[in-house]
Write a structure and sequence with these properties.
heterodimer, A: alpha+beta, 3-stranded antiparallel β-sheet, 8 helices, B: mainly alpha, two-stranded antiparallel sheet, 65% helix, elongated
Chain lengths: 260, 240
């Protein structure tokens, strides 16, 4: 499949892609691991609560104490909350990964016509290109990597990168000489000097961005986490102190194993 | 009941809405729900008038939180009076709210289960819980009024209410001063079309709901076993 169609397809990937979906379901259980959960303090507290209510539910069943239906309902709600949060996160990650895979495939399949010192061209994979290599790109070809036009004028379809559907003119000299890997030459022939090594191209950076490996939390996200963690502590305090108040109010002793 | 019901309740409401400890009647002698109103007023941080005197920092904490939440709702970096509200400010505001909650709830919880706490109660049952709650709410919340009815002149209450005052007053002021310092250092952002106006009804509503939600989240469980339960029992013909 040609890379432009592939890149175009990324945008069309539907929310309910079955492969991503089933993977996300598995991941949402795998993320229950406390070591992963602790990175998100609020959901970690919910998970701890879910484990505690489950233990207490088992205790109640074993000792025929408390109200089974009520305990079961609370337990299910808590587990559902944790699992759904994990699922939503796994979905976002899965979609990011799928997009990155498609982009990577598009990059790997592009062939380049490298200009040898004797004036002939040789066919190499675009991933073999190094800074300073000179490639010839003719009408219909993909530009194999980021570079600078050193000879010729061509109209280039940059829609894969910029979204602009009308072709743009790229020519040697001046400030319209830069071309990006993954775009397509529509007419004429140009010679391009490659200016980036594999792993540093625009496309590579785009892949990294989509994969989210190096994504940092925005300042507002951090502040929101602090707010939510604070509210969680407040609510924990309210619930924990409810027990002494209940003891004072004369709640029967077994109640601590049925109403938590 | 020297001043009659209307004057007494008005005074009680006003004195607990501001950080004023004067009373002209014993709040202990009110009906359960009547006694709950002064209790709630202080629990919310004595901010009903928008904070009088030093009470200004009480409402300021909630303003910071409300501005932050409003900013996130519209997807903009929140700002107040031209200053950006960032994670440090939110952290300090949360700390101030937490200290209030922590002091009141922990001290009350210990007092209701230990003999040295419960022995001071003059009316058993839910009313006793109200008495203990009021003691710590008033001393932590910088109010100073007494519910009456609780013998607070014991080793336990003298010590713990002193600690509660210390925490509720100074450990509240420290985070607020930290916010003030961090805001003063920031550059003023010029007002733009996207700035959330903090003078309109929308923001007022948001601020009020922030205060009520935080307050309800914190104290409703305790109140339900105190004044609310007492009210229900009173209607059922049981008085303490």
């Amino acid at each position: 499949m040609d890379p432009v169609a592939q890149i175009g397809q990324i945008r069309k990937k539907s929310l309910a892609d079955s492969a991503i979906l089933s993977r996300a379901v598995v991941d949402s259980f795998r993320k229950l691991n406390p070591r992963t959960m602790v990175k998100n303090p609020v959901m970690f507290v919910v998970e701890v609560g879910a484990v505690l209510t489950t233990i207490q539910l088992g205790w109640n069943v074993f000792h025929h104490a408390g109200q089974f239906g009520f305990g079961l309902q609370i337990t299910l709600w808590l587990w559902f909350t944790v699992l759904f949060a994990n699922f939503a996160e796994a979905m976002a990650e899965g979609r990011g990964k799928a997009q990155a895979d498609t982009l990577r495939k598009a990059r790997a399949e592009t062939q380049a016509h490298r200009l040898r010192s004797d004036g002939n061209t040789e066919c190499v994979a675009s991933s073999k290109l190094r800074t300073g290599d000179i490639v010839v790109v003719t009408a219909g070809d993909f530009i194999p990597g980021d570079g600078e036009v050193i000879e010729g004028v061509a109209s280039v379809d940059e829609s894969a990168i910029t979204g602009e559907s009308a072709p743009v003119i790229r020519e040697s000299g001046g400030d319209r000489s830069a071309v990006t890997g993954g775009t397509r030459v529509l007419s004429d022939e140009i010679k391009v000097r490659i200016t980036s090594n594999p792993g540093e191209t625009f496309l590579d950076r785009m892949i990294k961005l989509v994969e989210g490996a190096s994504r940092q939390k925005t300042p507002n996200e951090i502040a929101l986490n602090i707010l939510l963690a604070g509210l969680t502590i407040i609510f924990l305090l309210a619930v924990v102190t409810l027990q002494p108040f209940a003891i004072y109010s004369g709640a029967p002793c077994w109640s601590r194993f049925s109403y938590v | 009941m020297r001043f009659g019901i209307a004057n007494s309740t008005l005074f009680a409401t006003v004195t607990t809405d501001a950080s004023c400890g004067a009373v002209n009647s014993m709040h202990d002698s009110y009906t359960p729900l009547g006694g709950m109103v002064p209790l709630i007023n202080i629990m919310l941080g004595e901010v009903v008038f928008g904070g009088v005197g030093a009470g200004l920092y009480g409402i300021f904490v909630f303003v910071v939180l409300a501005v932050f939440i409003a900013g996130l709702m519209v997807g903009r970096t929140p700002e107040y009076l031209g200053k950006k509200i960032e994670s440090y400010d939110v952290k300090m505001a949360m700390l101030a709210v937490l200290i209030l909650t922590f002091t009141i709830l922990i001290f009350s919880a210990v007092s209701v289960v230990k003999p040295y706490g419960t022995s001071s109660i003059s009316n058993p049952g839910p009313h006793g819980l109200s008495q203990i709650l009021y003691t710590y709410v008033s001393s932590t919340g910088n109010n100073g009024s007494a519910f009456g009815g609780l013998n607070a002149n014991t080793m336990w209450y003298n010590t713990t209410t002193a600690v509660a005052q210390l925490l509720g007053r100074f450990f509240m002021i420290i985070p607020v001063l930290a916010i003030a310092g961090s805001l003063a250092k920031k550059k003023t952002v010029p007002e733009s079309a996207g700035t959330f106006p903090v003078t309109g009804g929308l923001f007022s509503g948001l601020l009020v709901s922030t205060i009520l939600i935080v307050g309800a989240l914190t104290f409703f469980p305790a109140l339900s076993l105190g004044p609310i339960l007492e009210h229900l029992l009173m209607n059922a013909g049981k008085v303490f």
